[in-house]
Amino acid sequence: MYVEMTDETGKVPENIIEQTEKILAFAAEKLKLKDATEMAVTFVDNARSHELNLEYRDTDRSTDVISLEYKPDESEIFFDEEMEIPEELLNEMDPFIGELFISIDKAVEQAADYGHSIEREYGWLAVHGFLHINGYDHYTPEEEAEMFGLQEEILTAYGLTR
Question: Where is the signal peptide (predicted)?
Answer without folding.
Answer: none
